[in-house]
Design goal:
2 copies of one chain form a homodimer.
Chain A (H helix, E strand, L loop, with lengths): L9 H7 L9 E6 L2 H5 L2 H14 L17 E6 L11 E4 L3 E3 L7 H10 L8 E4 L4
Parallel strand pairs in A: 1-2
Antiparallel strand pairs in A: 1-3, 3-4, 4-5
C-alpha cells in the first residue's frame, strides 16, 4: 500500500475524526455475520438506529439523522460465537452480550439498558469481564 | 423468515454457544470498513490473531489454533468514524480506541495492553465512557 504518514498532532486528529473529541458513553455492536443475518440482524441494527435517533442518542452527522453530541455509537460486527442463538448484540463498556435479539426487543434494550442502565436480564447471556 | 423459537434453558444455550460459559476478559475489534481496509486493517486483524494465538489468549476452537479457555475475543467491525485515521482498533471493556494502527504495532498492543493492562498511549485516541 501507499505509505501513510503518522499524524501526531492531536488537534489535527480531532479535525479528521470529530468523534475523537466526542463524549461517548456506550458502544452497541450488532452482529451481521452469516447466521445472525439469517435471523434478520440487519433489522435489529435498523431498529437500534431508529430508537437511538428518536431520542437524540446516536452519535453522528445530522444529515444522517444522528446527533453530533450523541453519546452512543452503533456499529455492526462479525461473528462472536453466538451463531446458533442470534441475533447477537453487545453493549460496551458494560460488557453485556445479548442473544436471540429480535427487532421488537430493541425498544426495551434502549429504554432499560441504554437509558436507565439496567441490562435486560431475559436476553443477557454473557458478561465481560467474566469471573 | 422462519419463526425461531426462543430458548429459555441456559444449559441448552451454553451447549449451542460454548462462549456463553467462558470467562472472557477482553474483546478486541478491528475495523474492516472501506477506509480502514485501504490501510490494510485485514493485516492488523491477522496480526492480532497471530499474537493472541501464540500466547494461548484467543478464545475459540483448537482446530483453528485458538484456545477453548482463552480470555480474548477477536472480531471485525464496521466503520466507527476513524475513517481518515485508520486502522481503528477498539479494546473493550477498557473502552480504548486506537487510531493509525499498523500490523507492526500489534505485538506492542498485545504485550502492553492485553497482557500488562497498560494502554499504548501513543496510539490511543478515545476513551469510553468519555467525560
Amino acid at each position: 500500500m501507499t505509505e501513510v504518514k503518522f499524524i501526531e498532532d492531536r488537534d489535527r486528529l480531532r479535525e479528521l475524526a470529530p468523534i475523537a473529541g466526542a463524549s461517548i458513553k456506550r458502544h452497541v455492536f450488532v452482529c451481521t455475520g452469516k447466521s445472525c443475518s439469517a435471523v434478520e440482524s440487519a433489522e435489529v441494527k435498523n431498529a437500534f438506529g431508529r430508537e437511538l435517533k428518536a431520542r437524540g442518542l446516536q452519535y453522528g452527522k445530522e444529515k444522517k439523522g444522528c446527533n453530533p453530541n450523541g453519546s452512543v455509537v452503533l456499529t455492526e460486527c462479525g461473528s462472536v460465537g453466538f451463531c446458533a442463538i442470534g441475533a447477537a448484540v453487545m453493549v460496551y463498556p458494560d460488557g453485556i452480550w445479548y442473544a436471540q435479539v429480535r427487532a421488537n426487543d430493541v425498544p426495551e434494550i434502549v429504554e432499560e439498558h441504554i437509558v436507565n442502565g439496567r441490562p435486560v436480564e431475559r436476553l443477557a447471556l454473557l458478561k465481560i469481564p467474566g469471573k
